[in-house]
Amino acid sequence: MKKAVAMLLGAWSAVCLTQAQQGSWMPDLTRQQDYNWHLSSSFEKTGGNADSLALNPGQTLTVLDTDGPGMVSHIWFTINDREPYYLKRIVLRMYWDDEKDPSVETPIGDFFGLGLGISYPWQSEVLSVGNSGALNCFFPMPYRHHARITLTNEGKEAANNLYWNIEYRTYSHALPADTLYFNAEYRQAQPNHGWTN
Fold first, then answer.
1. What is the C-alpha separation between 126 and 72, in angstroms, rounded?
2. pLDDT tens digits, 104-150
3. The CATH number of domain 34-185, selected from 3.40.430.10, 2.60.120.1390, 3.30.420.40, 3.40.50.300
4. Rounded distance, CA 114 to CA 117, Å?
5. 86 pLDDT exceeds 80?
6. By three-state DSSP, how is residue 79 classified?
7. Among the listed residues 11, 151, 159, 23, the one whose alpha carbon sits nearest the alpha carbon of residue 75
């Protein structure tokens, strides 16, 4: 009897932990979804296999430019660049609703949790970096009227192979009035003097 109760409590605890770890931002798969799924990708437009683009020094490439209302639900990048610390030199910017200044402006490595500019695998619920350097983001990023995402190469060498897939949803109805926007800004001071008591 005690063994059965212990097993039941263990199973119940596992269910509770699983429920606690599921983000409320994930869609309820038991309900009809009210969005259209879209993909912005670096795929070869002619049907060939040259699915990557080069990002030359000083170049800005728009990887998403779409109207809303909608929400970016997944971002994936893979970058092949010979320049050391290229993850610090390629800048990611995101603009919501035709704003002049970006809501997101950060080196791409820092955005994906690689603050030292070196790629290593790790994962969390909303960000991950794979063994091959695949960068994944699952933060929900809603927009009311327009979304634009760009990459700028501020380095000295070209990123010869840039791959991306950006999954986003569009809605036939307006977003709720209290919907919040996603924002991220990179800040650094060298040297960082800190403070003293």
1. 13
2. 999 999 999 998 889 999 999 999 999 988 999 999 999 999 999 99
3. 2.60.120.1390
4. 6
5. yes
6. strand
7. 151
